[in-house]
Amino acid sequence: MSPFFFGYGSLVNRATHGYGEAEPAQLAGWRRVWVHTAVRPLAYLSVERDADCTIQGLIAHVPGGDWAALDVREHGYGRHLAEAAGAGGNRPIQVYAVPKGQAGAPATAHPILLSYIDVVIQGFLREFGTAGADDFFATTHGWDAPILDDRAKPQYPRAQVLSRAEQALVDAGLASVGAVVGK
Fold first, then answer.
1. Which pLDDT score, from 0 to 100, does residue 2 have?
2. Which of 57, 103, 122, 157 has the highest count of CB atoms within 10 angstroms of its CB?
């Protein structure tokens, strides 16, 4: 099994984990999608196959091939073998995705947390700049889902402090995809 994983959401924000051996990469043939499952009360990111899409993220090494801690963090997902392209060329990786048939579209009872989106976009800004954040919004599906504004009191367990400029970029990105943030 490959000792590398591909992070495409909050794992792109290095402040949310301790996987130091990481590099920017691309994963062809997949797209991000907002989902909810019976495993969590809130919506979260997953990926699904899409031959016409390529997403950016991070390839990170799993020290000693010890997947236990990452599997706990990524609870509710299954691992899938894929190949991602980074600075070191193409390499086999594991990508976490909700198993087919177990994901539903987010709903009012299962909203997306704005604090989660903030963490993800902060990571993309740091790794890929504004163009990377724009690409995240463009290559992620499900923006018609309800978004809960929890910035004042973040519910996301790995929430980060964003600058006003970062918050403005998140807000502009959400507006660009027609997403509506509610209370």
1. 62
2. 57
Domains of the chain: 4-182 (3.10.490.10)
Mean pLDDT, the chain cut into blocks of 10 residues (183 residues total): 86 90 94 89 92 96 83 85 89 90 77 97 98 97 94 96 97 96 85
**Contacts with 69 (C-beta within 8 Å, 6 or more apart), sequence order:** none
Phi, psi at 136, each rounded to 5°: -60, -50
Q: Are 42 and 113 in contact (CB under 8 A)?
A: yes
Token output for 12: 């792109």
CA distance 145 to 43: 9
Nearest to 70 by CA among 148, 128, 7: 7
Task: List, in order, residues 6 or more apart from 36 with CB less than 8 Å away.
Answer: 42, 43, 44, 103, 104, 105, 106, 107, 110
